[in-house]
Amino acid sequence: MIAIAWAPTYAHPLPAGHRFPMLKYELLPEQLLREGTITSANLFQPQPATPADCLRVHDAAYYHRLVRGQLTRHEERATGFPWSPQLIEREVTILGGTLACARHALQHGAALNIAGGTHHAFWDRGEGFCLLNDQAAAAAGLLAEPVLGVHKVLIVDLDVHQGNGTAAIFQDDPRVFTFSMHGARNYPHRKETSDLDLALPDGTDDATYLALLADTLPRLLEEVQPDFMFYLSGVDVLATDKLGHLGLTRVGCRQRDEYVLGLCHRHRLPVVVCMGGGYSERLVDIVEAHANTFRVAQDLWG
Questions:
Q1: pLDDT per position as a tens digit, 121-144
Q2: Active site residues
Q3: HEC letters along the chain
Protein backbone atom coordinates (compact mmCIF):
# COMPACT_ATOMS: atom_id res chain seq x y z
CA MET A 1 0.00 0.00 0.00
CA ILE A 2 1.38 3.39 -0.94
CA ALA A 3 1.61 6.03 1.78
CA ILE A 4 0.55 9.58 0.95
CA ALA A 5 1.52 12.51 3.14
CA TRP A 6 -1.12 15.21 3.50
CA ALA A 7 -1.90 17.79 6.17
CA PRO A 8 -4.53 20.54 6.44
CA THR A 9 -1.68 23.06 6.73
CA TYR A 10 -0.71 22.32 3.10
CA ALA A 11 -3.59 24.57 2.03
CA HIS A 12 -3.61 27.20 4.78
CA PRO A 13 -5.37 30.53 4.11
CA LEU A 14 -3.41 33.08 2.09
CA PRO A 15 -4.22 36.51 0.65
CA ALA A 16 -6.58 36.44 -2.32
CA GLY A 17 -3.85 36.51 -4.96
CA HIS A 18 -2.35 33.28 -3.66
CA ARG A 19 -5.49 31.22 -3.07
CA PHE A 20 -6.12 29.72 -6.50
CA PRO A 21 -2.90 27.69 -6.84
CA MET A 22 -3.30 26.46 -3.24
CA LEU A 23 -6.73 24.91 -3.87
CA LYS A 24 -5.18 21.83 -5.46
CA TYR A 25 -3.85 20.72 -2.07
CA GLU A 26 -7.44 20.37 -0.84
CA LEU A 27 -9.04 19.08 -4.03
CA LEU A 28 -6.50 16.41 -4.97
CA PRO A 29 -6.99 14.11 -1.95
CA GLU A 30 -10.76 14.65 -2.17
CA GLN A 31 -10.71 13.56 -5.82
CA LEU A 32 -8.55 10.48 -5.16
CA LEU A 33 -10.78 9.39 -2.28
CA ARG A 34 -14.03 10.04 -4.16
CA GLU A 35 -13.01 8.00 -7.20
CA GLY A 36 -11.67 5.14 -5.07
CA THR A 37 -8.05 5.35 -6.21
CA ILE A 38 -7.08 5.52 -2.54
CA THR A 39 -8.77 5.12 0.83
CA SER A 40 -8.22 7.05 4.03
CA ALA A 41 -5.78 4.30 5.04
CA ASN A 42 -3.35 5.56 2.40
CA LEU A 43 -3.22 9.04 3.90
CA PHE A 44 -1.13 10.07 6.87
CA GLN A 45 -0.58 13.44 8.49
CA PRO A 46 3.14 14.10 8.80
CA GLN A 47 4.87 15.65 11.75
CA PRO A 48 6.71 18.94 11.25
CA ALA A 49 10.40 18.58 10.53
CA THR A 50 12.80 19.39 13.36
CA PRO A 51 15.37 22.17 13.14
CA ALA A 52 18.04 19.47 12.80
CA ASP A 53 16.24 18.06 9.76
CA CYS A 54 16.23 21.47 8.09
CA LEU A 55 19.77 22.40 9.04
CA ARG A 56 21.25 19.48 7.12
CA VAL A 57 20.76 21.54 3.96
CA HIS A 58 20.10 25.08 5.19
CA ASP A 59 22.24 27.76 6.75
CA ALA A 60 21.47 28.22 10.44
CA ALA A 61 21.29 32.02 10.20
CA TYR A 62 18.81 31.85 7.31
CA TYR A 63 16.69 29.16 8.98
CA HIS A 64 16.38 31.01 12.29
CA ARG A 65 15.56 34.32 10.63
CA LEU A 66 12.96 32.55 8.51
CA VAL A 67 11.11 30.88 11.38
CA ARG A 68 11.24 34.04 13.50
CA GLY A 69 9.85 36.26 10.75
CA GLN A 70 13.07 38.25 10.40
CA LEU A 71 13.60 38.08 6.64
CA THR A 72 14.20 41.38 4.90
CA ARG A 73 11.46 42.74 2.65
CA HIS A 74 13.63 41.84 -0.36
CA GLU A 75 14.06 38.27 0.87
CA GLU A 76 10.34 37.92 1.54
CA ARG A 77 9.43 39.21 -1.92
CA ALA A 78 11.81 36.68 -3.48
CA THR A 79 9.89 33.82 -1.85
CA GLY A 80 6.57 35.03 -3.32
CA PHE A 81 4.77 34.53 0.01
CA PRO A 82 3.89 37.01 2.76
CA TRP A 83 5.43 35.71 6.00
CA SER A 84 3.20 34.27 8.71
CA PRO A 85 3.51 31.63 11.44
CA GLN A 86 1.05 29.50 9.46
CA LEU A 87 3.34 29.67 6.43
CA ILE A 88 6.26 28.36 8.48
CA GLU A 89 4.11 25.58 9.92
CA ARG A 90 3.17 24.62 6.38
CA GLU A 91 6.77 24.58 5.16
CA VAL A 92 8.19 22.47 7.99
CA THR A 93 5.24 20.08 7.73
CA ILE A 94 5.82 19.61 3.99
CA LEU A 95 9.46 18.88 4.70
CA GLY A 96 8.49 16.47 7.46
CA GLY A 97 6.13 14.75 5.03
CA THR A 98 8.88 14.12 2.51
CA LEU A 99 11.16 12.79 5.25
CA ALA A 100 8.45 10.39 6.44
CA CYS A 101 7.73 9.32 2.87
CA ALA A 102 11.40 8.46 2.38
CA ARG A 103 11.36 6.05 5.31
CA HIS A 104 8.14 4.47 4.09
CA ALA A 105 9.51 4.05 0.56
CA LEU A 106 12.56 2.22 1.91
CA GLN A 107 10.22 -0.41 3.30
CA HIS A 108 7.41 -0.45 0.75
CA GLY A 109 8.90 0.83 -2.50
CA ALA A 110 7.12 4.15 -2.99
CA ALA A 111 5.46 7.03 -1.17
CA LEU A 112 4.03 10.35 -2.29
CA ASN A 113 3.69 13.80 -0.77
CA ILE A 114 0.67 15.91 -1.77
CA ALA A 115 2.98 18.93 -1.74
CA GLY A 116 6.73 19.33 -1.76
CA GLY A 117 9.24 19.64 -4.53
CA THR A 118 10.38 23.00 -3.15
CA HIS A 119 13.41 22.98 -5.43
CA HIS A 120 14.02 26.74 -5.59
CA ALA A 121 15.06 26.90 -1.93
CA PHE A 122 18.81 27.38 -1.59
CA TRP A 123 21.16 26.77 1.33
CA ASP A 124 20.78 30.36 2.49
CA ARG A 125 17.64 31.79 0.89
CA GLY A 126 14.21 31.05 -0.50
CA GLU A 127 12.91 31.80 -3.98
CA GLY A 128 9.93 31.10 -6.19
CA PHE A 129 7.39 29.94 -3.55
CA CYS A 130 10.04 27.68 -1.95
CA LEU A 131 11.41 28.40 1.53
CA LEU A 132 12.87 25.06 2.67
CA ASN A 133 14.08 22.39 0.25
CA ASP A 134 12.19 19.22 1.19
CA GLN A 135 13.73 16.75 -1.25
CA ALA A 136 17.23 17.97 -0.48
CA ALA A 137 16.62 17.64 3.27
CA ALA A 138 15.16 14.16 2.89
CA ALA A 139 18.07 13.03 0.71
CA ALA A 140 20.55 14.37 3.27
CA GLY A 141 18.59 12.68 6.05
CA LEU A 142 18.83 9.28 4.36
CA LEU A 143 22.54 9.71 3.71
CA ALA A 144 23.15 10.73 7.33
CA GLU A 145 22.12 7.27 8.57
CA PRO A 146 24.42 4.62 7.04
CA VAL A 147 22.32 1.86 8.62
CA LEU A 148 19.58 2.67 6.08
CA GLY A 149 21.82 1.51 3.25
CA VAL A 150 21.39 4.61 1.09
CA HIS A 151 24.75 5.71 -0.29
CA LYS A 152 23.75 7.29 -3.62
CA VAL A 153 20.63 9.33 -4.37
CA LEU A 154 19.22 10.35 -7.75
CA ILE A 155 16.93 13.38 -7.87
CA VAL A 156 14.82 13.44 -11.04
CA ASP A 157 13.28 16.89 -11.42
CA LEU A 158 10.74 17.06 -14.24
CA ASP A 159 9.06 20.28 -13.18
CA VAL A 160 9.03 22.85 -16.00
CA HIS A 161 11.38 25.03 -13.92
CA GLN A 162 14.99 24.08 -13.28
CA GLY A 163 15.70 22.75 -9.78
CA ASN A 164 18.21 25.51 -9.14
CA GLY A 165 18.23 25.39 -5.35
CA THR A 166 18.65 21.62 -5.28
CA ALA A 167 21.46 21.77 -7.83
CA ALA A 168 23.31 24.40 -5.80
CA ILE A 169 22.90 22.56 -2.49
CA PHE A 170 24.45 19.36 -3.87
CA GLN A 171 26.94 20.85 -6.33
CA ASP A 172 29.89 19.50 -4.32
CA ASP A 173 28.29 16.32 -2.99
CA PRO A 174 29.00 13.27 -5.19
CA ARG A 175 26.50 11.20 -3.20
CA VAL A 176 23.57 13.04 -4.81
CA PHE A 177 23.10 13.22 -8.59
CA THR A 178 20.75 16.00 -9.71
CA PHE A 179 18.93 15.68 -13.04
CA SER A 180 16.69 18.52 -14.19
CA MET A 181 14.71 18.46 -17.46
CA HIS A 182 13.02 21.82 -17.84
CA GLY A 183 11.96 24.61 -20.17
CA ALA A 184 14.95 26.60 -21.40
CA ARG A 185 13.10 29.93 -21.20
CA ASN A 186 11.33 29.33 -17.91
CA TYR A 187 12.11 30.67 -14.46
CA PRO A 188 14.75 30.91 -13.08
CA HIS A 189 16.38 33.16 -15.66
CA ARG A 190 19.78 32.47 -14.10
CA LYS A 191 20.18 28.71 -14.05
CA GLU A 192 22.44 26.75 -11.72
CA THR A 193 24.37 23.69 -12.86
CA SER A 194 22.81 20.32 -12.11
CA ASP A 195 24.78 17.15 -12.65
CA LEU A 196 22.66 16.86 -15.80
CA ASP A 197 20.49 19.61 -17.24
CA LEU A 198 18.28 19.15 -20.29
CA ALA A 199 16.83 22.50 -21.33
CA LEU A 200 13.86 22.10 -23.67
CA PRO A 201 12.68 24.53 -26.35
CA ASP A 202 9.26 26.15 -26.17
CA GLY A 203 6.42 23.97 -27.38
CA THR A 204 8.16 20.63 -26.83
CA ASP A 205 5.45 18.03 -27.47
CA ASP A 206 4.65 14.64 -25.95
CA ALA A 207 6.61 12.53 -28.44
CA THR A 208 9.77 14.65 -28.27
CA TYR A 209 9.67 14.91 -24.49
CA LEU A 210 9.04 11.22 -23.87
CA ALA A 211 11.70 10.12 -26.37
CA LEU A 212 14.31 12.30 -24.68
CA LEU A 213 13.34 10.99 -21.25
CA ALA A 214 13.51 7.37 -22.47
CA ASP A 215 16.95 8.05 -23.93
CA THR A 216 18.24 9.59 -20.70
CA LEU A 217 16.79 8.01 -17.58
CA PRO A 218 17.77 4.35 -18.13
CA ARG A 219 21.32 5.49 -18.82
CA LEU A 220 21.38 7.47 -15.58
CA LEU A 221 20.18 4.48 -13.60
CA GLU A 222 22.99 2.44 -15.10
CA GLU A 223 25.68 5.08 -14.58
CA VAL A 224 24.65 6.51 -11.20
CA GLN A 225 23.54 3.22 -9.62
CA PRO A 226 21.29 5.00 -7.11
CA ASP A 227 19.96 3.38 -3.95
CA PHE A 228 17.06 5.84 -3.81
CA MET A 229 15.21 8.25 -6.10
CA PHE A 230 13.32 11.46 -5.45
CA TYR A 231 10.97 12.39 -8.30
CA LEU A 232 9.53 15.88 -8.74
CA SER A 233 6.45 15.39 -10.91
CA GLY A 234 5.42 18.97 -11.69
CA VAL A 235 2.49 19.28 -14.09
CA ASP A 236 3.49 22.75 -15.24
CA VAL A 237 4.86 20.98 -18.34
CA LEU A 238 1.31 21.03 -19.72
CA ALA A 239 0.55 23.17 -22.76
CA THR A 240 -2.27 24.74 -20.72
CA ASP A 241 0.09 26.00 -18.00
CA LYS A 242 0.23 29.76 -17.53
CA LEU A 243 3.87 29.80 -16.40
CA GLY A 244 5.31 27.06 -18.59
CA HIS A 245 6.14 27.12 -22.30
CA LEU A 246 6.12 23.42 -23.09
CA GLY A 247 3.44 21.56 -25.05
CA LEU A 248 2.58 18.35 -23.23
CA THR A 249 -0.95 17.01 -23.08
CA ARG A 250 -2.47 15.41 -20.01
CA VAL A 251 -1.99 12.02 -21.67
CA GLY A 252 1.66 12.76 -22.29
CA CYS A 253 2.13 13.91 -18.72
CA ARG A 254 0.67 10.64 -17.46
CA GLN A 255 2.91 8.68 -19.82
CA ARG A 256 5.87 10.52 -18.32
CA ASP A 257 4.84 9.36 -14.84
CA GLU A 258 4.21 5.82 -16.06
CA TYR A 259 7.70 5.72 -17.54
CA VAL A 260 9.56 7.11 -14.52
CA LEU A 261 7.66 5.15 -11.90
CA GLY A 262 7.63 2.03 -14.05
CA LEU A 263 11.44 2.09 -14.18
CA CYS A 264 11.59 2.45 -10.40
CA HIS A 265 9.20 -0.45 -9.95
CA ARG A 266 11.09 -2.74 -12.33
CA HIS A 267 14.47 -1.87 -10.79
CA ARG A 268 13.10 -2.16 -7.23
CA LEU A 269 14.37 1.36 -6.66
CA PRO A 270 12.64 3.10 -3.73
CA VAL A 271 11.09 6.40 -4.82
CA VAL A 272 9.44 9.40 -3.20
CA VAL A 273 7.24 11.54 -5.42
CA CYS A 274 6.55 15.21 -4.67
CA MET A 275 3.90 17.14 -6.52
CA GLY A 276 5.71 20.28 -7.68
CA GLY A 277 4.12 23.00 -9.76
CA GLY A 278 0.96 23.31 -11.82
CA TYR A 279 -0.60 26.62 -12.92
CA SER A 280 -3.09 25.94 -15.70
CA GLU A 281 -6.00 28.34 -16.12
CA ARG A 282 -8.54 25.60 -15.33
CA LEU A 283 -8.23 23.98 -11.93
CA VAL A 284 -9.52 20.69 -13.36
CA ASP A 285 -6.44 20.46 -15.61
CA ILE A 286 -4.14 20.86 -12.62
CA VAL A 287 -5.93 18.41 -10.35
CA GLU A 288 -6.45 15.75 -13.01
CA ALA A 289 -2.82 15.84 -14.12
CA HIS A 290 -1.61 15.54 -10.52
CA ALA A 291 -4.17 12.82 -9.82
CA ASN A 292 -2.75 10.77 -12.69
CA THR A 293 0.58 10.59 -10.87
CA PHE A 294 -1.11 9.03 -7.85
CA ARG A 295 -3.19 6.72 -10.04
CA VAL A 296 -0.04 5.42 -11.71
CA ALA A 297 1.69 4.84 -8.36
CA GLN A 298 -1.34 3.03 -6.97
CA ASP A 299 -1.51 0.79 -10.04
CA LEU A 300 2.15 -0.19 -9.55
CA TRP A 301 2.44 -0.49 -5.76
CA GLY A 302 -1.14 -0.52 -4.47
A1: 999 999 999 999 999 999 999 999
A2: 120
A3: CCEEECCHHHHCCCCHHHHHHHCHHHHHHHHHHHHCCCCHHHEECCCCCCHHHHHCCCCHHHHHHHHCCCCCHHHHHHHCCCCCHHHHHHHHHHHHHHHHHHHHHHHHCEEEECCCCCCCCCCCCCECCECCCHHHHHHHHHHCCHHHCCCCEEEEECCCCCCHHHHHHCCCCCCEEEEEEEECCCCCCCCCCCCEEEEECCCCCHHHHHHHHHHHHHHHHHHHCCCEEEEECCCCCECCECCCCCCECHHHHHHHHHHHHHHHHHCCCCEEEECCCCCECCHHHHHHHHHHHHHHHHHHHC
